[in-house]
Structure formats: structure tokens, C-alpha cells
Amino acid sequence: MTLLVALLYPAVTAIILLLQAVQKSHRQMSLLGVIHSAATLIITILLMAMPDAWNGALLSLFMIDHLNLILMLVTGVIFTCASIYAVGYIDGLVKAGELSRRSLRIFYLGFSLLLFVTTMAFYAPNVAQFWIFAELTTVFSALLVSILAVKENIDASLKYIFVCSTSMLFSFIGVIFLFELIRQKTGTGSLDWQTILAEAPSCNSGMLMIACTFFFIGFAAKSGVVPLHTWLPEAHAKAPSAVSAVLSGAILNVGIYGIARIAGIVHQTSIAPRISLLLIIFGMLTMSVACFSMLRQTGIKRLIAFSSIENMGFLLLATGIGTPVAFFWMIYHMMGHSVVKAGLFFSAGILHRQYKSHTPGTEDQIGDLFRLQPFAAVAFIIGSVAIIGTPIFPLFLSKFGILLESGKLSLYIPLLALLLFALAGAAIFRFILDIMGKTCAEGEVPLQYIVPIWMKVPVVFLLALSVFMGVLMIPGEEAFLSAAVHDIGIGGGI
């Protein structure tokens, strides 16, 4: 039964792609995109509701456990919101002449394919399949980044492909090492996640260290970890805002997912302290570079993009700490960050439509903000309050929990992290105060952009969801998250 439900993912995707390929109406293509995303979300919820059927099972096509179901739930929510938002947003791009009507089919086909390969990456039963589908997320993401076909977007897309795909070659070497490790141990090579997890304690520690280091390089690039982060600000800032939300809210999680899986495998072995130190160092380095970079940003989407890098560094720090409690809050932080960050990019998209600069390479000149776009202004401020980890929002809980765990290793870690959080908060609110104080010059006030209801609904929903996540845990949520930690391979109580 579980396999039949899981097979709905490729079946629905095939039907949607076929219908989108023959449609000529933009509205029909966008509606099919919404149906595809919503169907993916519904299938995920169905799988979550039948734990007795998949719990601990490794199927030939899908590995289904608590961890990938949580991330697929988040992915389904983000893609559904983005597809609804795109109904109004993409229509505005077409009317403004920024997106050719001939590119609409490419956009919606690319969007559907990106959702599918992301789904298959999370459910991949072995490392090789995971690597392939993770690489495909880069290909289809880059296609969507460059869809506007202007020089800045094409450059950002090429940089994205070059950095991530080159780095992923190192991960491929790591995959080869993992295969050889298991072959030496069992006599027959295997790349199944669960087989590697079971055999890792008795494998050669030196070769495992090399394999994990190579694997980390590729997926660090996918996650925007310093120094392999250079593609992220460009790609997220130049992409259409519906795409930026998906990249930050869903695709970055693919990289962190891969690192978390490998960290769980390493946790079973004697090299765990060395890998943990590596993750902590790169986590703190990533947070530091991102927070200091945020201080000098003048563009709203680049500011949000560097905030994503900061949060990826924090997730890496939590993974490096390696305790069950740290992993629990790491997964929770991934959920909260995805929801809040997607809402921020949606709000930024509305402001971009209002204030778009017609001079290539220049930032939007925001003025008379609360008079022209009060909805987007309020939503952006609330989202900013949420992303810095203010109480009643989910990132407060995860930051608090992870910092407490980091203090058990060294008091310097939470102290430095708090200073970096303060820098990030200062950067965001310096930007907000700056745009709030600006007025348009007389005679240069732009016409008010009438925001379609399609673009408002996802913003309101995600903000409401973030508040709900921050103040309540639904029955069974804590147990499900705890089981996800166990699925990674991190034992002990939470």
C-alpha cells in the first residue's frame, strides 16, 4: 500500500507534465502547477498518516522514514504556496515584458520537474540516486533562475551551475569511497543508506574520513556553506521571487539533508569528533561571513539571501554538535526557516513589482513604502522579526535549544553565535529603517502596483503558520521529530 501511494508522486508528475506540454493558456498552465504542488503535499500527508506501513522499511524505489517525510511536508507547503503566488506574479512579469510568453511553458515545466527531482532526492534509498537527483535540482533550479533571459540572470545561473556541479564532483568521489568501504566489509558493494549506517562502525576509519570529507564538499556547496556560497546571493536575488522562495525554502534543505545523513553515519564511528569539529568550524565561519555581509547590503533580496546563508551555517553548527537534542532542534529549525524565508521572498517580490528599477544592475529605489505597499511592508517587517528568532516564532525555540546544547561543548560557541545573531538583526532593521524613511522625489512617485489576491494569500498563510509553529506543537509532532532524529542514526534520549 505504501509503495502504491508513493508511486503517485511520479504518476501525478507525468500527467501534469503531459498536460502542461500541450496547454497554450497561461492560466491553465499555472493552475496545473498548483494542482501538482498540492497533490504532492496531499500524498505526503497520506504517507505520514500510515506509519505502520513504512516504518523502518527500505523499498526498492523509495526510502520512507520520519526525516524525509518531514522535509517533504515542508517542500510540499513551500511549492504549493509558490505555485499559488506565481499565478499573479508570473502574470505581472509577462505584462511588464520581463518574461516572454514563449518562455511560460518552459517555466512551468521546469517548476514541475524541480518539484519532482526534489521529491525523489529526499526519498532516494541509496546515496548514488540521492546524488543524481540532487544534481538535477541544480539543473532545473538554474533553468528557473535564468528564465527571464537577461544578462544578470544568465550570469547568476551559470555561476550556480559551475560552483555546485564542480563541488558535487567531489561528492561523487566520496560516493565511490563509500561503495568501496562497504564492498571491503561485506564482499558486495552497496550504497543503500541503511546498509551504510549499519556497517559504518566496522569500516576503515581513515577511508571513511576521506569519503565523508569529499561528500561534505559537494553538499556544502548545495547548502551555501562558506566558502562555496558565492553562487547563492546572485541566484536567489536575480531569480523571480516565486523561484527564490523555493530555492531558499526547499532546495537548500537538500544539501543539509545529505550532510545530516552522513553525519548520522559518522556518529556511529570513532571519527565522529573530527567530523563534528569540521562541521562546527564551517558552521561558525558561514554564520560570520553571512552576518558581516548582511551589514553592507542595499538590495532587499540579497539581504534575505545572506540571511539564508547565515541559517545554513547555524544548521551546520547544530549538526556538528551532534547530540540528539541538537539534531531535534536542527530539524525544527529547517522547518521554521523554510516557512519564514519563503514568506520574506514573497513580500520582497511584491516590493520588487512596485519599485523595479529599469536600469540594469541597479537596486530598486524604495520610497513612500507604507503609502504604496502597506501589505508588503507589514509582512516584510513581521517576517524580519520572525527570522531573527523573536519569541512566538519557531526560530526562537530552535535557536534557544541549539545554543543550550552548544554551551555544553564550549561557552564561547553560544557567545559568538549570539553576537552574530545581533549583527544579523542589526543589519535587517537598519535596512528596514532606511527604506521606511525614504520618500519618492516630487514627480517621481510610481503608480501603485495592485497586488493580486494570489500573491497575498501565500504570504498571510506562511506568516500565520510560522506563528502557529512558534506557539504550539500539534499532538504527535514532538514524537515524530524525535523519530526523525533516530532515523538519522543519532541514538539516546531527547
From TrEMBL:
Keywords: Cell membrane, Membrane, Oxidoreductase, Transmembrane, Transmembrane helix. It is found in: Cell membrane. One of its GO terms (molecular function) is oxidoreductase activity. The keyword Transmembrane helix applies. Residues 124-417 form the NADH:quinone oxidoreductase/Mrp antiporter transmembrane domain. Pfam families: Proton_antipo_M. The chain crosses the membrane at residues 6-22, 29-49, 69-94, 106-124, 130-148, 160-182, 202-221, 242-263, 275-295, 315-335, 375-397, 409-433, 453-474. The keyword Transmembrane applies. InterPro entries: ComplexI-like_HydComp (IPR052175), ND/Mrp_TM (IPR001750). It is a multi-pass membrane protein. It comes from the Archaea. One of its GO terms (cellular component) is plasma membrane. PANTHER family: HYDROGENASE-4 COMPONENT F (PTHR42682:SF5). NCBIfam families: PRK08676.1. This is Hydrogenase membrane subunit. The lineage of its organism: Archaea, Methanobacteriati, Methanobacteriota, Stenosarchaea group, Methanomicrobia.
